[in-house]
Specification:
The protein is an all-alpha fold. It contains 17 helices and no strands. 78% of the residues lie in helices and 0% in strands.
């Protein structure tokens, strides 16, 4: 590592190119096509080749690598590979540029203003034209709808979710259909259409269970529990959160696990079960710190402040609130 940082840029290119070729020779001796390679292997080859003296192997591996990184929620590496792709400039084929912009947008959701991320999405949509890429097009639509919600443009968000739902069904991506239904439920809630919102979330859970997507099942259960709390069905919501927590742990979604634990803490606080609320909040805070996720940590600190206020520990509560405010501006509590 020390020697690498001392290398001239041209020598770094030679180094990355040599590493990419060595990995390909050593771990893909049969010369299997990218789609047949394991995601981590495709990612390693793409990462080094795109920084090397011959980016062509990286261009071939990038679509497989990016799909793997999407599924594993590795936004840091998505950002690295998509940025490397986009640095190629005009030589990058439009479909691959659109995929790179999709992953750049996804990686930037928590770090860039919504308008900047929307710029990436709109550019990618323009590159696709009338072509419907079965992976890229539905996910661009989902991110665009999510951004519309964040900008308070709920009618536009709902229209985009309807378009995304049609796209997911057109390409037969049932797990993504469950994802879009859940987002659509969120937009309906923000428009005050609560019965339709609840129906959309239930449809999302049914769809996730039907296709066996544990990840989407987890998110749908969390969203449904949020709706149940909103109508005062706290005990039923806790059962739903238990299912969401089990699903999150089963598929390794640590960020969602953190969120569900904190939502459970809020529900237990509303029921006056302070000891249990404190326990779940402490677990949530521990996961957030393990992940190094400041936004999740800030939410957990705000929740701990509310629990401490309920116990009459006002000075400690104020300390938590100040710490959370210093980290990051907290967004809506009931994270979906």
């Amino acid at each position: 590592e020390t020697l690498y940082h001392e290398l001239h840029g041209a020598l770094r290119e030679s180094y990355h190119g040599a590493v990419a070729r060595a990995i390909a020779r050593g771990e893909n001796r049969a010369g299997a096509p990218p789609d047949e390679l394991a995601g981590p292997l495709a990612t390693r080859i793409a990462y080094h080749a795109l920084r090397g003296d011959d980016p062509e192997p990286g261009l071939a591996m990038a679509p497989r690598a990016l799909r793997y990184l999407w599924a594993s929620h590795d936004t840091e590496r998505q950002h690295e590979i998509s940025t490397a792709l986009l640095s190629i400039g005009d030589g990058l084929p439009p479909p691959l540029r659109a995929q790179a912009l999709l992953h750049l947008a996804n990686a930037a959701l928590e770090s860039e203003p919504a308008t900047a991320v929307l710029g990436h999405v709109d550019e990618a949509v323009g590159l696709l034209g009338d072509a419907v890429d079965p992976f890229v097009a539905p996910r661009l639509s989902a991110i665009r709808a999510f951004l519309m919600r964040g900008l308070g443009r709920y009618d536009e968000a709902l229209a985009e979710y309807d378009r995304g739902l049609a796209l997911a069904r057109e390409v037969g991506d049932v797990a993504h259909e469950a994802h879009v239904l859940r987002g659509r439920g969120g937009a309906l809630r923000q428009l005050g259409r609560h019965e339709e919102s609840l129906a959309a979330i239930k449809a999302s859970l049914t769809t996730a269970l039907a296709c066996g997507s544990v990840e989407e099942e987890c998110s749908a259960r969390n969203s449904l529990a949020i709706r149940l709390v909103a109508i005062g069905a706290h005990t039923i919501a806790l059962d739903m959160y238990d299912g969401a927590l089990a699903s999150a742990r089963a598929c390794g979604k640590r960020g969602t696990e953190c969120t569900v634990l904190n939502n459970m803490a809020r529900t237990l606080l509303l029921l006056g079960r302070l000891d249990e609320a404190e326990h779940h909040n402490a677990e949530s805070l521990a996961v957030a710190r393990e992940l190094g996720h400041l936004q999740l940590e800030s939410r957990a600190l705000i929740e701990r402040a509310l629990i401490r206020e309920a116990r009459g520990q006002y000075a400690d509560a104020a300390t938590d609130q100040e710490a959370a405010a210093r980290m990051v501006e907290a967004k809506e509590w009931w994270e979906e």
